[in-house]
Amino acid sequence: MVNFFKKYLKRSDFLIRNVRSLRRWQRLNQKGIYPSWARLTPKADREENAKIRILMAPSVGGHVPMFNIESLVGAALVERGARVDILICDGALPVCLECEHVKFSTQGLITRLIDKGPEMFCGSCFGPAEAAIKGSSLELQKYSHYHSEEDREKVKEISMAIEYSKIKYFVYDGIAIGEHAYAGSLRFFGRGSLEGVAQSHPVLRRYLEAALLSAITMQRLIDSFNYDVVVLNHGIYVPQGIIADVSRKNNVRVVTWNPGYKRGGFLFSHNDTYHHTMMTEPTSDWENMEWDERHDEEITKYLKSRRIGAQDWIKFHNNPNFDKKSIVDELGIDFSKPCIGLLTNVIWDAQLHYPANAFISMMDWIIDTIEFFIQRPDLQLLIRVHPAEVTGGVPSKEKVVNEIYKRYSTLPGNIFIIPPESNLSTYVAMEQCDSVLIFGTKSGIELTSLGIPVIVAGEAWIRGKGITTDVSSRHDYKTQLNKLPLQNSLSDSQILRAKKYAYHFFYRRMIPLNVVEPIEDWRMFKVGINGSDDLKQGRDPGLDIICNGILNSDPFIYPAEKLI
Hints:
By secondary structure, this protein is of the alpha/beta class. The protein has helices spanning about 1-30, 35-40, 65-80, 105-115, 120-135, 150-160, 175-190, 200-225, 240-250, 275-280, 295-305, 325-330, 360-375, 390, 400-405, 425-430, 445-450, 475-480, 490-510, 540-550, 560-564; strands spanning about 55-60, 85-90, 140, 230-235, 255-260, 265-270, 340-345, 380-385, 415-420, 435-440, 455, 470, 510, 515-520, 525.
């Protein structure tokens, strides 16, 4: 009888979650979150003899921001004479981007995912997206139409046959399938490593299956329709990373995108994920841009607003504490003595390969840094752990503070930590520091604009811009640490350069769309048009830049310095 009730409770938990999922999408539809493309762009408007064929590949219909932007841009491309397909998973993948540890919070639910896939989300994920597209100028393509049951059995056999330790390095048909599967698993568990994680073995194998099925599906789509361009979110994880790799292998142009940090803005890139392209774009894109006092005031005002996220999509604290005395009282730090700041990232996020990286991982860098400061009691180290560890869309299950204390039972009196849940202002804390050490955080863009020297040990976007001290080896890092404290702010010319890059990053690379309406009580947005005329060339400058970039390979740069 006890076992019966345990099974019943587990089943009830599943049913409750499934009902909640369905109710969530009902609420979204009531809010008008999903657009009705049949009404906005009827099928009769579709161009059958288009010169260019484009695949928008949101894949996960339940990821509303992703689906809305890609269907919106797709509809705008149709208005410009393209033929556009929308690729959506119809429950065919055993795991996907919709799978996150916060939605599978018990071992029983993870077991259900391993056995049956993400069935609890599939209906409420695919259904609304299909309904939004049906009868419109956009053509729906379903995953299940491009692989068979035989394919599913084949990929399962491959997944089970590979030694677990070798999955991460598995390559199939020239595609780094294992790397993408591993990244997807890290995202699922919210961790930077799968070592010692319960059920990580079967979950990783399911991600491997999903990655293989995605590769087969994408290859057959390209064979069937000979796409000219594929547009997708991020360009990493499963299935997006696989779609991008298969497309590039077939010489199909790839465009990736992601919501920008500034509200209303979207970051588009050619050929690769923005994690890479923001590192490699030439400085000539911005260093000689038009600049005057108005632009200086504009970026200064915006950067100040980021302290509370007033103009941003996401903020990590509702009520940040800007009182310097609170930092002193809470930590016991003495800001009259030399202090060096250190800003972390979320451990699991965007675990990509960067050839210039001096450290194996962020934690490797943090431990090296702590070891240095243990030997330098004359300097204080102030570590600010990223708030997104606890307030991000996928909270981290692997915490920086925990990882530090696994190595050190106690820390010396010159090393201080602001934990992720603290509402102490990161900006106020770092402004008290002589200089700041970063790995991959974008905060380097803001700090240098304030004149604070920054040493970059990882692959932050501020790297290589002629503003920061960039290191490419452990030895080089140690050399730079030995120069601390620097006791000088950045020069006026360096600060000006930093502000120009900040303006480029937040105003020019984050393309504003007037046809999108942010929703205050959701971390998302909805389409804000009355009909297809609102999507025509010349109606929205940002949409024109995005469409011209997709159609003609034009740069995804919004000339805000001339238009605002």
